[in-house]
Input
Amino acid sequence: MTPTSLDGLVARDAELAVFQDFLDRLAHGRGGCALLEGEAGIGKSTLVAVLRDQARRAGFEVSHSTCDELRQRFPLAVLLDALGVDPRSPDPLRVWAATGEYGGSPSPPRADDDAEATARGWSVSLVGGDPVMAGVERLLELVDRLCANGPLVMAVDDLQCADEASLLVWHHLCRATLQLPLLLVGACRPVPRRTDLVRLRREIKARYGSVLSLDRLPREAVAELTRRVTGAPPGPALAERLELGAGNPFYVRELLDALARVRIATPSGPVTELADVAGPDAEQAADSRGLHARQSWRTLASAIADRIDFVSADTREVLRTAALLGADFSVAELTQVLGRSALDLAPTMEEAIAAGVLESEGIRLRFRHELLREALQESIPGPLRVTLRRDAAKALTAGGAPVEKVAELLLAATDAADGWELDWLAENAAGLSRRAPDVAAELIGHALGNAAHDDPRRDVLEDHLAALSFLMARYEQAEQSTRRILAAPASRERHGQAVWFLGYTLMRTNRLGEAHDLIARAVADPRASPVWQPRLGVLAAMAGLSADHYDEAAEAAKRILAAGGPDPDPMTAGYALHTMAMSRFARGDMTGTVEAIDQALAVIHAEPELTDLRLLLSANQAAALINLDRFAEAAERMRTARALAERTGTPRINSLIVLAGELAYQQGRWDDARAELATFADPTRNAFVQYLPTVVHGVEALIAGHRDDRRTANRHLHALPDATGTVAYQTNNGGYLLMARALAAESAGRADAAAAELRVLLDPEYAVMDDRASMFPHLVRLALDTADLPTARQAAEAARIDARANPLPRAVAAGDWCHGLIGSDPDLVLAAADAYRTAGRRLEHGNAMEDAAVLLAAAERVDHARSAAAEALAVYEGLGAVWDARRASARLRPHGVRPGVRKTRRRPQNGWAALTETETRVADLVRSGWSNPEIAKRLLLSRRTVETHVSHILAKLQAGSRREIAEIAESAESAGVTDGTGQRVAQH
Output
């Protein structure tokens, strides 16, 4: 698009002004987001092209692509194309975005991946997570890093045809425009009316930018467009004829061009008029074709068809074939499909460009408008169109085209499949699974439906479908596929692998009895594979874990591990050690858990098929380390695991997010906890994380309750389903929720209701809660406050029993605390407070010091009481725990203890002093020009957590860009301003 493109825009001054404002803001580091809406041909693409041209002239990096229905099934295709993400790119950053690897130009998945997997006992190479979500994360990080180098403009046409993953990325990028020098411009038609686009439109309009709806041109604008195209405004007859265009700029241009091609409409004096109206000379100039066209051009479709018919027959046939390849294509693809050389095709391409059908887009060609491509496609009979797509796919296969390009055409030609695609699928299933698992599953399923029962290619395709279905959590399909494998003759290795997938599927769908019977039969079968038999034995032990048979499971795993010898199979040993670790975890042996998981992580190395196990082990080890108060080690383990989870796109990422939030909460870094939990996406359909929302809302409600923000606390408490009141939910990570409900009742002045919330902990069914001990001191205090001495004594005894059975530091401290309350012994409570102080558990430290202060005051040790109270209030001030401070003062007041002038203050809402310690560090790194991914690496956080911190910083500083954050930080340092923790701004 050249600078003269503005000449073709009529009555779009308002939209151009909006775009200019966006570009001006972008020059000052502020992002923006615009969505252009309108019918086909209304001028969306022209406006986008003008914006791109102006952005390039301003020195901004510009990316652009167009969605089309062929690529809609291929996740992220339009954004990968727009950003130039390709494993063959000379830019290492784009190579990484394409492959997940830095440096060099890694090849896409190789054909021998399955051979390597076979050497490890698998018949197919498994995808180590969700490749689509991994791609989403890499694209978001790529944009973050590109924006660190300078402003970026991203434009995408025809968003109504975008795939779901691309719209997900677009949604995240819209949010990122609030802090990055990023301008997003999307164009879409009003139909089809997609729910995700409606949501995107609503959010853009409300939060991120502008929604511009393009209307049809009024008559005077059509007249001006005619003047710009022909040199003179339309006469009455031409103006009437142009009403066929209904004010649509593209339609009007097509009509004008069609009339001009046969000289029916020509400038005549002060106007452009139809030939038979313009006078005898013009009439004489019109040829027979023009006279015929005068009668036939009664519809727009005929005018568009005429543009295509106007080119030579050879060019027309080439264009029909090109239309089947999508909205854009390369000359190389066209030569492969047509079997003609580029030199031979050059004249036809030049003619098509001159005729206004095609235009250049970098090194590719694209149709000038989708309506032209649609007209070309519609000119091919439906059955023939399907056959031609099949032939095109076959030709591209022979030319070594990328798997997604071949698969695009295969998807549209499955009805014409004649068997040749089976070989291609068998060879490329692994690569296609990594690129588009949904498409791979569909094509493989269709191919299996057409393949003969004795077709030798069925085995590998069935194995891929079983693996894909399992990894995509499509358990019904996984069960069907694996049962087909088991019902037919299969090698011992394929049989063992199928039993593993089916057994695990039955376990994840809570059919433990069926899983046990299936696996037991397979293990006892004398024909079982020597590789898979011990693996299935471990799976049986894991089924025992799921049924709470911890000791039996651990013993079985131990026997299998010992039988493996000094050089065990990594998969067998890894899952055996996982089983032993979880058995120890259930018994409260956290040190043993950590040791077993260390052994497991060492033995599984980096086996790609064991990525999920590595993440599971890492998350469980981090949880055990937190229970041991080894917080620094837990944070490091989570950081490593989270990086792997983001790289692979696994749904286990949410478990690690929540665990990071828990760690921050237990350490008293509540603002950091909220920033971590803000990145959690509730995956309600994921079997791995069905209880995680309970943790998220429970922690959020607890923080809000301690800070006396009852509205926020109630919002989180009511965000959970009624099922969260059941034992099943509460014993599975429900401790935070119980505490939040008790805190809400106590802060409302209902201590008896608060005690009732926690009294359920005394039920034997709750003995399995690994955090029960830490809640007993609160139950004892509430019971004593409500004169319920039996409950207080029962809770204290249960705490002591838990501490003996599970001598974790926090459990031992909780036991001392409870008995100190029961026996009015402040020294026991002080000892507990000291243990919490040493561990770094700030809230427990403060709460225990508060109880100790009350006991000391009751014993008339006033000076000691005042000192303990001051320490408790200092903790509360650092946490922002306004409610706890008010409760402490109220409890001490009857004893005449007033702990000095310290008053717990709420953190300011705005300004530099409003920033938390972490936010101050992030702001300082933003000031240094670091991108969010770089900051994340420096601070051992995730990129999305840093993004959340930056959003909070922008809001608190009332800044509009990262550049403004840097300027405010400079001013704060010059003025010697401190952050919210009292620390001076970092020096450089």
